[in-house]
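We modelled the chain as a single entity of 251 amino acids. Its sequence is:
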Amino acid sequence: MELVPEDPDILSNLGSLYFQTNQEQLAFECLSSAIILKPDHFDANQLAGLVITLHKDYDVALNKYRSILKQSSESSILWNNIGVALMGKRNLIASITCFKRASYLTPFDWRISINLGIIYMHTSQWLSAFQHITTSINLFNIIKQRSIRRSAINHNDKNNHKTTHDVGMLYCLLGYCLIKLNEYSKAYEAFMNAYKQSNKNPLVILNCANFLVKSNKKLANQMFAKYKKLNLTSEFELPYWVNKNDVSNNK
């Protein structure tokens, strides 16, 4: 007989741990149990909303987020994830409003900046998209450098320098904005930087190859060949740069 704790905090924490190890079914079961015990449990509802968003059930996710919005209207992560769900519903104006609110609350979060960049790409506001994507890359690189410095100080922490996301896709998005702004030489630099930073990410490789088809067919074919040998895993499929490890840690 399995002992199931009747403490919503424990269940929520278990759900978070399961989610971080990609055991989404077990995560959702724990989160659902926590919500049954305490319907307004902030962490459980927020993480459940993210799980549901990743499965593209945006209306249900929004209901989860709305149920906790009153108790934490100043959570940038919550506003960010509401924006993601609204983007999934193609409600772009409302999504922009949510991302701007999130950015106001946490102006130096690179994930929120990239979401604003992506939403402006959807609305063909290429200069605004370029500005936010550039900001996101700069913030990402600052965080990465700080992590590397901490790793150098803490020699025993071999994983301290690792970052959650792949910066190569940010450079790909930057490259597409530059194409739309007729800055082709700078777009080339962006895509080459993307490949340099993330040459094991199949999405980066594919985007770089597509860009190079007309200007450097030989290199493009090499990239296409490499792309076909790689598998697209969930590590590269998370939409709109939601950082699932941070969801339950921001109120």
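As a brief sanity check on the tokenised model: The two ends are 36 Å apart (CA to CA). DSSP finds twelve helices and no strands in the chain.
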